[in-house]
Amino acid sequence: MVLDPQGAAVKNSLKALGYEDVSQVRVGKYIELTIEAPGREDASARVDEMSRRLLSNPVIEDFSYTLEEAGV
Amino acid sequence: MVLDPQGAAVKNSLKALGYEDVSQVRVGKYIELTIEAPGREDASARVDEMSRRLLSNPVIEDFSYTLEEAGV
Fold first, then answer.
1. How confident is the model at residue B25 (pLDDT cuts 50, 70, 90)?
2. A10 and B35 in contact by Cβ < 8 A?
3. pTM (2 decimals)?
4. Contacts of B54 (CB under 8 A, 6+ apart)
5. Cβ separation of A10 and B25 shorter than 8 Å?
């Protein structure tokens, strides 16, 4: 995130509640996807593509993801 | 999350882009805190308390967190 007004607001609120030991707050989105894929590499490629095309705004956000195999 | 209209909206958008293999989408908040603490247990207790008091809405959200030691 290049600018994070929400993070700054949360930091101020925490300070007002007495949490002075918090020096930085960044607020972003968390997205959990359940996806059907033949394997990890395929799932990874799909998630990467969806993240770039729709889920993130590449101008002002970066993204990362982890894969977890769902119980079958 | 008990209801997640944003997740449903994202799922529909992904479907419209051809990502039919996504069966579930949940959208939530991601918050990164930099906090000064004498140790892991102390940091954990602080984060837990902040999460319950301010960062989450306990009626409609749950939360989880992980700790990472920052480079000193």
1. very high
2. no
3. 0.81
4. A10, A13, A14, A17
5. no
